[in-house]
Amino acid sequence: MDKNLFAVTPPMGWNSYDYYDTTVDEKAVKANADYMAENLKEFGWEYIVIDIEWYAHEAGSKRDKYQYIPFWGVEMDEYSRLLPDPERFPSSKGGAGFKPIADYIHDKGLKFGIHIMRGIPRQAAAEHGKILGSDMLACDIADPSNICFWNPDMYGVRPRLSGSQAYYDSIMALYAEWGVDFIKVDDICRMDMYSAREEIVMLQKAIQKCGRPIVLSLSPGPAKIEQAWHYEKYANMWRITDDFWDKWELLLNMFERCELWQNHVNPGCWPDCDMLPLGQIGAAFGHEHPTNLTYPEQVTMLTLWSVFRSPMMLGCELTKLDDRTLSLITNADVMRLLSCSCGAEQVMRNKEQAIWKTFDIEEDAVYVAAFNFRDNDSLTVYDENDCTFADEEVTELLDEPCRELWTGREYDSLRSALDDTVEAHGARLFRI
Amino acid sequence: MDKNLFAVTPPMGWNSYDYYDTTVDEKAVKANADYMAENLKEFGWEYIVIDIEWYAHEAGSKRDKYQYIPFWGVEMDEYSRLLPDPERFPSSKGGAGFKPIADYIHDKGLKFGIHIMRGIPRQAAAEHGKILGSDMLACDIADPSNICFWNPDMYGVRPRLSGSQAYYDSIMALYAEWGVDFIKVDDICRMDMYSAREEIVMLQKAIQKCGRPIVLSLSPGPAKIEQAWHYEKYANMWRITDDFWDKWELLLNMFERCELWQNHVNPGCWPDCDMLPLGQIGAAFGHEHPTNLTYPEQVTMLTLWSVFRSPMMLGCELTKLDDRTLSLITNADVMRLLSCSCGAEQVMRNKEQAIWKTFDIEEDAVYVAAFNFRDNDSLTVYDENDCTFADEEVTELLDEPCRELWTGREYDSLRSALDDTVEAHGARLFRI
Amino acid sequence: MDKNLFAVTPPMGWNSYDYYDTTVDEKAVKANADYMAENLKEFGWEYIVIDIEWYAHEAGSKRDKYQYIPFWGVEMDEYSRLLPDPERFPSSKGGAGFKPIADYIHDKGLKFGIHIMRGIPRQAAAEHGKILGSDMLACDIADPSNICFWNPDMYGVRPRLSGSQAYYDSIMALYAEWGVDFIKVDDICRMDMYSAREEIVMLQKAIQKCGRPIVLSLSPGPAKIEQAWHYEKYANMWRITDDFWDKWELLLNMFERCELWQNHVNPGCWPDCDMLPLGQIGAAFGHEHPTNLTYPEQVTMLTLWSVFRSPMMLGCELTKLDDRTLSLITNADVMRLLSCSCGAEQVMRNKEQAIWKTFDIEEDAVYVAAFNFRDNDSLTVYDENDCTFADEEVTELLDEPCRELWTGREYDSLRSALDDTVEAHGARLFRI
Amino acid sequence: MDKNLFAVTPPMGWNSYDYYDTTVDEKAVKANADYMAENLKEFGWEYIVIDIEWYAHEAGSKRDKYQYIPFWGVEMDEYSRLLPDPERFPSSKGGAGFKPIADYIHDKGLKFGIHIMRGIPRQAAAEHGKILGSDMLACDIADPSNICFWNPDMYGVRPRLSGSQAYYDSIMALYAEWGVDFIKVDDICRMDMYSAREEIVMLQKAIQKCGRPIVLSLSPGPAKIEQAWHYEKYANMWRITDDFWDKWELLLNMFERCELWQNHVNPGCWPDCDMLPLGQIGAAFGHEHPTNLTYPEQVTMLTLWSVFRSPMMLGCELTKLDDRTLSLITNADVMRLLSCSCGAEQVMRNKEQAIWKTFDIEEDAVYVAAFNFRDNDSLTVYDENDCTFADEEVTELLDEPCRELWTGREYDSLRSALDDTVEAHGARLFRI
What mean pLDDT comes out for the span A343-350? Predict the structure, then answer.
């Protein structure tokens, strides 16, 4: 199987984390799947992803002290493999695992994803648990110094032991059996130390062996640009940023990251700007709230993600989506860029503004996006004479007529379009 | 002009530095051009490049104390532009510059290149020199804190001043007039600080304005991988290493660099492994000697450069080439890879060995290169079962017959070929 | 001579920089000397220091573009030694140098200091100038890559050449002749690279040879704590911070630096917190203004400098001092700490507050200083039970009566004193 | 209690690690104590220290795979406190702990030390163990991300919880009960991250509370010079190096570390160069061998440790000491420096040699040590005219007569002594 065919365009979907944190349950998953099938599917949205600690008992019950309760119980089979917490996922009982939920989602024409932490449960290591298809025990392959610094559930595995690959093979076989289409693997993308680099290889080998084209997504970022070729060879998506939330500073910072990765966006290979904190979020974090991003900032976010072609995962509770947000994520002209554009390039960026351009691969069109970083409404000025600013390919387009895709406004020329006012922290996306 | 068309395959040629240091003169240049035209041209070798300090008076005369004599005289026109030292380049007198030498080289069907240092002469700044096409003076655009740390000739220029672009335009116009085909710009590639990044843009703008397709080569390295897109947009070659010399440690180290840059090799965009210290080198450094690389190490170097498709510049005095070295650089089967292969990828690398593969774009062939890093003759063992080692695309080829391109030996299968002994620090290049 | 005897207590005085930048002249120097002799001397203030570019022609005349005009003229004798600019220092004409000014200052019972940049003038190197007492020329000892990054006047010297020591000996002999008591050497304290470390040794050797006990002060910081022993062996003061100005963030940051250096304060060895930006400052920078520090912040600054025993140099124009500022710097009870305390130690510091204590060496007294870092008036709470907070030696004092030195207020016990409100960013200094 | 009085001179003794690794047992401890009492005590040697994993079951039994067996059993009381492994320390059974061994050692006039790892056992956290004197449980105070990277036994504790101090109080009370005089705390000195810094404070508070003057020694290094004041306030010794073994490169490197810390050596505050790998070592590491240091290197080591006044802990099996080694460590003239010298200072150091000097505080003597770093026997040349070399205080002594303390040789003058040949990697220690 060619892993680049698992995700020929950037994955689009919903992820439980921004709203549910560790408390996501069966009911929430189904409700969001229902909503997506009915309202978003036709615009390309298709993945339903269950995020962190679906296996943890009483997850979220000590939220004042811990996000992840240390030294607490997890649901596990006799082969050291984590299973859904039966309290939150009743359909998983009796060995069914996530199969019933996967079936439910597939029946709606959607795809199903889960989150896992890199490694093997600490509890399995302490209890000297077995590994399917190997004589080794969990305590043999677990490396006690190979931990995640923000989650206490797992130990990384020792990369050159046969039991380690057997363990990854065994969990991937289980996920394939369940019908998983997408795994988001955490504590692996930064590859700061330990075996994360090798575990990426083991994961892709396990996917190849399981026979199901499971999309491999790596978190958290920032990914290392000097390892770009490694991600490109073994994974489908990799986070180029630490967790992204609804703060302007983080959004502004994403422009630097997209500049860095602009020449690394290809079918099956998607640098990932992280979830979209739109709509209603934060509930299980103790402060449910509508996104703190202003409307122009939301436009900026969606414009950048679309032009750059980042995967797009909605972080909100879908059933609480307001009309204005809904209209943004169902703008077909913009969403089109994820599947039908390529060759995106940053034309210029300074402290006040940025300009990107990209191309339509099906129709003979160019897109130019202009971003206003200032704290006030202002002109986006394109200076044809500034040598560190001007780009011949944009200069040539200045006399062409164009349409702005968020407002629908038509312009006689790109020059006049670029001379129009943009809101503070806002953006314009022109099609020429 | 599309700068990617200036060098659609990796440039191949000769450079004066490794043998002549700062002392290169007209006679040496012509002798090497004569030799190349007669013996090497048909194998793809075509550039003749004059390296550092062709403008410096008495260059090399205090070699016991300085490589570059500080606070000494340079040849300069009234517009702060450096000219060839008339002592060493008599044909340049009377305002002819390098035109006579360029003509000589072009007449032989070869191409002509020169080296320059980033910036404007310190002497011009001290003397408040003029700039062609600008009211500003050298002292206005020179930045006194923007220096090269190993050469005392120049100051970097202030990037946002019109006089700075005018200065670069003026020198490039002069070089176009002379007939320069290639410039190697020094003290610019690492972009550690200062204006190097902007000066790269100014140089390419000046090339576009001068109307001549001059190849832009950047030194010294290591180039920064996080700026790959910047090099790719504005330059043709960029050094991915500091100066490379005839030492095994440096050659071994190049494998790490090629791993890093393997996905950045494209027409018009050539990560550069630096000059080939083959044959007779080091004369003006005070220790003329045949290369310290063993014959197997030379094979390793040429195999890596060829598979990776690095530009190749011979550092030796060509007229002193021995037969064995000559046979290496005129192996047409190997040299073919520079123009006719693509998609090179490192299959594996550890402390003992490395394997690369690449593809022929004209014929239906695959190349597999095996390198032995050990200090003794040994087998290159390809382990199909090691998950951090095996590559499906190589495994599929194991039963195919193949030919080794340095020895001409034929093998029944790649498996048996990979099982053969390789010399200490040596390499094999198989065509399948 | 034992250099530790040159400054047995931290030097106190006035420095021209914060008000005059590069434009200080003879008249200003004398006016400030007059004021100090009359109003401040009795409280320990005694040094009058002329800061940067007293040798530069037209210094400050292009202030919109440059702080230091590059490639411009400097006053220099035949031995490459800088002399006072005769336009600004008329008494220096005819070879008198700074002697007349030094005499004027000495006559008032004060001491005289000057600022110099590390190294030899770039102009001397370009002109191949001579060096007194050596056959070498300026171009022999100047190192072209050894520059200051913010000032274009000098090149550092090559450390192992006899001409380099001769040069330093020659300038120090000249300063001794003039009657200089204090030199502030710039571009030398951070010792980031080059020869700064060796030039410190050469400077102290030159001082020893000149026979005059000239205090050696090193700038700019931050000094490297891992070289503490080197500063302690060869210098009298070294800046532990980059330039300090009238901003709360910089003042807050100084607490971290004082923590770092607290065990390195000794007679003749003074970690230096930089000039006091009190009163009227900034004139030649184009924005004359009263200090931006609030009154409580000024109290915090003077309390920290006094307890830590930093050298104290007033940056303001003394003749424009207002009464409130004057009362601060003439509080004899506080100023006493510079000469009569020792053993200062940070008891605790967190984001909200800090506590220091020190001892009086002549009288049986302890000082406790409490600082409020919060942005509002608040209590300084000393928690006897917090293990990361409490200090036995302070806990023992809690029942002792005490007096606050800025307000003069008396308290029954240190416990009640520490429970009192402190203004936002303010401080209390208790004597027990 | 003033912790500086716990170790007014640098501790001298024996440590089990270099020979026994994790396998030290009761018999070995007693045998070494017997030997010390009889042969070394009179020269200042007095501590017997049991190093790592005295609490671990089957320690050392899987030495081919692990130094420290992960996820294995440890001996622990009901309050999460580690106890001696009864298999190896039979006298500890029935709740006696290390008291019988401590008594045995004290009866011989020696002192008793143990090693501990920072934090609370992982096993206690997993089992939700109790803490003496607190309602909190081990799982409340253990921080799952706060681990040691080379030993899997413990979790660091959360610094601001009352249960954390209670835990440290409880173990220190137990050690005081046993009669422990010295604890070497590991995984704490580098303070790279986590709570190590706060745990140092908690340890000293626990010592103060336990009422016994237990020397606090911190490992492993290198300690951070910027935290010198923190070590000085709370500990008695801190390692300035990572583990030191019998390799010349490590010994050479120690000169850099001693330079760095030379002004931080004071009563109760001892920068620590680590154990002395003399005699017979390495047994439980699987390669028992005599030290790889040559005799001159051993002299260099002991000279540096003595002049610098590092604590000295013998790493070898004492009962196997050969005569030559014994004579080194019983040279009373040299050992005297640990208790009777002060003010040691590095006079110079380059790639070829180093010179230190120090003073005797009881007798009017100066010591000068000369070290030869070259790989051949050579002269140690003191150049009175090299400004980066010469030290006035040494120059003054050149005409004084002196005696070399290792050879007993007498010299007419220090000048002639310094002119004598020193063996490759050897040293001379002159008393003047």
Answer: 91
